[in-house]
Each structure stands twice: as structure tokens, then as C-alpha cells.
Amino acid sequence: MTSDQDTSVIDPSAPGAGPQQVVVSVDAMGGDRGPEAVVAGCARSLRENDQLSLLIHGNEAVLEPLIARQPVLSGRCTLVHADGVVTMDDKPSHVMRHGKATSMWSAVTALKKNDAQAVVSCGNTGALMAVSMLQLRRMAGVNRPAIACLWPSRGKHGFSTMLDVGADIKADPEDLLAYAIMGATYFRNGFGDALPRVGLLNVGTEDHKGRAEIKAAHELITANQDFGRYSYIGFVEGSDIPSARVDVIVTDGFTGNIALKTGEGTARLVADMLRESFRSSVFAMLGAGLASGALKRLSARIDPRRVNGGVFLGLNGTVIKSHGSADAMGISAAIALAAKLAQSGYHGRMAERLVVAAKTAQEAAPKADSDAPARAPQNGEPE
Predict the structure, then answer these.
(1) 343-367 pLDDT per residue, tens
(2) Does 376 reside within a domain?
(3) Domain closes at, from 313, 329, 357
(4) Whether the predicted pLDDT of 379 surpasses 60
(5) Phi, psi angles (nearest 5°) of residue 10
(6) Are residues 128 and 240 in the same domain?
(7) What is the mean pLDDT of the chain?
(8) Does residue 268 sit in the same domain as residue 191?
(9) Contact call for residues 176 and 221 (beta carbons, < 8 A)
(10) Is the pTM of this model over 0.85?
(11) CA-CA distance, 179 to 254, in Å (whole number)?
């Protein structure tokens, strides 16, 4: 059986990457801010990590001048030409059929060929997932891959992990079990926590609440917690996401994406309201000046750029989806996360548990069906 003894901390904001050389493949043409921001983020990541090299994919006519302006990139990056660009409006099905000449496809191909150990892209999320699934394939025991994000919290590590946040709007009970195992493995190897606390997102914490598939997932996650090496605390609510109660929040991609975007929007609203309040009068501006140190620490603590990068879990390779609007700092954080994940070896430790858990869930499904009470006849149906 594989071991989880290697628990090197994966803090994406920490400089340095350890002794192992790592190559990250970067799609330079995706994202809202264009290749300028991506190349600047690449330069920033190399300044912070002496063991990092990059493959930068995109149109060489556009990228060569940008790379030339960053001396740190000289000798530590390789430019891979790709004519095409996946836009935010492109449908995943179209990219899968016609996207082989794009920078996104080229970046994932480098990982498939073992020319790199991880991929980073700011581009179209659906297209990136589709291309990654096509080229890298799902891990054994995974039906639906998930996107995991880090969420600032009051826990001892300062962050919790939530998945899925947008890879797939559906999730069967077996998928939610796989998410629990993947999320716990990611958190364990990311923060050195031997027994992460897993919670299943629901409309309440009472056992009788929630849809049928949520209740079925609750039973599966409970039954596999010893094998999966996590502590299952049961149902959690939206207010628990940033709390100290839970480390890994499991949900479907529809709910998770709404929660993520709501959190981001609320953070921006609070920041804007604080700025407006501190500019409302002379005394308010004076108070802001006196509190500037504390405000800067708060801003850094909740700055989404520090934890930019959703991890595609459940694929045979490390793929990081950077936020489309990420600036150089955010892209650098995503590259740092990709490098440290690639070095951690978490994939191997996750694989065996997923296979066994999937088999266990399949064996439990017929029993659950046979034990379920007969459905009461509805209006108009014969008894």
C-alpha cells in the first residue's frame, strides 16, 4: 500500500521550491490581461524559485519581445510556438475538435509527453478541462474530476480546501466520495495535516436535511474515513466554509462555483466599502492612516492573488487553472503552486485509495438500493 508520510507543505505564497528541479508548462495566450501579464508572472516566479524552469507556449511573434524585456527568463525558459488561441467564448467541444494548434493544447501536450511536470493556464476553464481529460485521461476510480481551490479560513493552517468549484455541475454520491479522498490527500500533502477534517456542504447540519444523493454520499464518506485517512465531521453549511471547523469542504461543481464567486464578490464589496468609509471625512482618513499597518496585513491575508489557482484533481497529471483576470502576482502564485504540487508526489498517494474506494462504493450501491424503503405511490399511480 502506498504511504502518505511525505507531507511537504505546499504553501503557494512561500518562496523557494526545495531541491528538486521542476519544469512547468505555461499557456501564455489565455487570460483577460493578455500575454503581458503571463510573461510578467513567469518572470516573478523564476525570481522566487531557483529550481524552476518554464515552457512558455504561444505566438512567438508576440511573446519574444515580452520575454526579451525580462532578463530573468534568459536561459530558464523555452518558447514553444503555437499559432492558435482558445478564447473565453470557445466551446470545449469545438476546442477538442479544432484546437490542436492552440497554446492551451500545446501546454497540456508538454505534460503528456513528460516534457513538464505541471501545466498552468489562465484560459477557458471548460476547454482546459476537456483538453486535459482528452490528453491526460482520468485517474482510475474517478468518474468526474474536480477543481479544488484554497479558501482563507480561521483554521490553524489559515486556509481550507473546497471542491468541486466548477469542473462539473453534477456529482453522484460516488463522485462526492472521490472528492473527499482527493481533497483530503491534497490538503494532507499541502499543509502537513495527518488527518484533515472533511465536511459535506448541505443546507443544514441535521442528518435529515438534504437531497437523496447528499444523504447517500454522507453514508459513503462516513464509511471510508479510516481508509481515506480523514476525519469526517458530517454536514457543513455555507457559514462553515471560512471557519475553523473544517479543512476540506466537499460539494458539486454547481454549488461550489456559486459559493466561490459569492465569496469573491463579497470580499470585493467589503474592500470597496472600507475604502469609501475611510475617505468619507478627514477624521476617517486620519483613522485609516493610524490603522494602515493592520489594514495592509488584512489585505494581504484575504488577497485572492496569493492563492490563485484551482487544481484539477482526478487527472493523470497536475493541471492548474489560474483565474482569467489574474495579474502577474496571481500568475506567479499559480506557477508556484504547480511546481510544489509536482514535487510533492501526491498523485501516487491518491491513486490506490481512489481505486479501492470506487470498488467499495459500487459494492455498497446494490445493498443501499435493496435496503431503501419502497416509494409510496403518487397521486394517480396504482398502489
Answers:
(1) 877 776 676 667 666 666 666 665 5
(2) no
(3) 313
(4) no
(5) -105, 80
(6) no
(7) 84
(8) yes
(9) yes
(10) no
(11) 14
